Amino acid sequence: MSAPMSGGQAAVAALQAEDTRFVFGLIGSATMELFDALYDATDIQFIGVHDERTGVHMADGYARASGQAGVVLAGQNGPGATNLVTGLSQARAAFSPVVSIAGALSSGHVYRDAFQEVDQQSLFTPVTKKTWTAPSADRIPELFREAFRTALSPRQGPVQVNLPRDVLAAQVNPEPLQQPAQYRNHSVPAAHPDQLKQAAALLLHAERPVIIAGGGIKNTGGAEQALQLATALNCPVVTSPGHGDAIPFEHPLNAGQMGPRGNAVASRLVQEADVILALGTRLGFNSTFYSYDNINRDARIIQVELEPTAIGRFFPIDVGIWADAPTTALQLQAEITAAQQQRNADQWTQAFQAERAQFLQQRDADAVMTSPIQPSGLFKALRQVVPKDAAITMDAGTLCLQATDALQYWRPKSLFTPLDFGLVGFSFACGLGVKCAMPERPVISLMGDGGFGMTLSELSTAVDHNINTVTIVMNNQCWGAEKAYQRDFFQGRYIGADVSSPPFDEIATRYGAAGYRVNTLAELAPAVEAALACGKPAVVDVAVDPAALYSFRRDSFKHRGG
């Protein structure tokens, strides 16, 4: 038996057993025993935040970038816990393995309308894979082990552990802690030989095949396997929205992101393909809007997914393969190569490559480089200055949605977005977590002025912990998406659409960060380069034309005409 310890010490020991490097969170009186134990845990760095929601975004970014669980700690029950909900909802939509911990009301005070009482078990159940409330201190190691295993098992996602005050204070003699290798699964399922033969036959006889690479390729580091298969087939690869970094930008078979939020070339390929291999993608909302406007109704679909309930959920399929996407890609490549059969896709692929080259050339040629700054000119300037090894985080809002496929991602795990939940105020905090996971890479966070205004207090977090990211605020003085809808569909009856903000560059310097102001495109590259080199967290406040509005979801307002 181990030496006696408090429940708080047992919790920290469980985190150490999971090789936890960072805990993001906000101190609170409900978890003092846990924080006191963290004081002695020199192998864990605590990153104190100003809001539990942004702490979840940091843990989310860390998890996505590292492939490990991101840990967030809300020190206070009640309001400290409720602040976690938005961030956990975002993490759930993105299948991000966040382990969230919160203090909870003392067991003897439950159901008494006690101070800061809220039913945390019920609160978190809908927005997590699973939620636990520790019944006793001796159960803490077991529940932490189960929390990490659940978060990191396919489909990954966030979990919640509530720790009552009396449980954290209680003394316990825990059993020796198990290490992750002793209780986690290390294998992934492969495709059945019969399914491989069916899929290979469809692909070999296709005249217009296309591969859609989704999160099942990006998050598993499966770019090489997907591209080996694409090369064997000589067919184009499109990526699902938000996963434009699933394969390297410069690969000749890369068409970019598809669908309503993608580019015209990639979208056309999916609309015209006769065989579609959906490789680690749900074919969900952001890819298709669940509409045959965005995918060929007559295409034969092969869908490879690790989540069985996603197969054939939105579109009927010809072959459904419940398996790991990179593993299946290699299996299919071997099947294709062994067939030694002449494929029919060369003309289709050559035509796509010519169209793709023309599209990229025309995109640069059409960019408006005059003042006031237009989105097309801004994105062109960013394409020229963003380092190839940069990781880029995005926010919600039309400027970020337009930027998603307008920038270039040269290696996997370079793009982090809130597309699945559409969350404003995500990017800056997510970028801090990404930087903790990948300190050697530059991290650039794109935000609108409204979203940055929500989260700028975390500048002190960045400064205090030397988390040196660059945040580019695309400042158009409004909630751009909503103002565009009011202009286009509600006769310009603007209400709540305009945003006033202080000079973000000056605010950054007051926090101890670096600040830069950009009013013309000629000033952008020098400002971004200086921000990347300054050795501090940096904010680049870019004045974007407030009139450059774009209605992204026109389908939502068809009933209004216009």
Task: Throw out a few tags for this protein.
562 residues; Rossmann fold; 6-stranded parallel beta sheet; 39% helix; alpha/beta; 3 domains; single chain; 23 helices; globular
Brief write-up:
39% of the residues lie in helices and 16% in strands.
CATH topology of the largest domain: Rossmann fold
Beta-strand proportion: 15-25%
CATH superfamily of the largest domain: Thiamin diphosphate (ThDP)-binding fold, Pyr/PP domains
How far apart lie the N and C ends?
73 Å
Total domain count: 3
Largest sheet: 6 strands, parallel
What is the approximate shape? globular
Q: Briefly note the structural class of the backbone.
A: alpha/beta
As an assembly, this protein is single chain
CATH architecture descriptor name of the largest domain: 3-Layer(aba) Sandwich
How many helices? The count is: 23
> Can you give the helix content as a percent range?
25-40%
Task: Report the strand count.
Answer: 20
In angstroms, what is the radius of gyration? 24 Å
Mean residue pLDDT: 94
CATH top-level class of the largest domain: Alpha Beta
Flag low-confidence runs.
none
Q: Biggest sheet, strands in spatial order?
A: 3-2-4-5-7-6
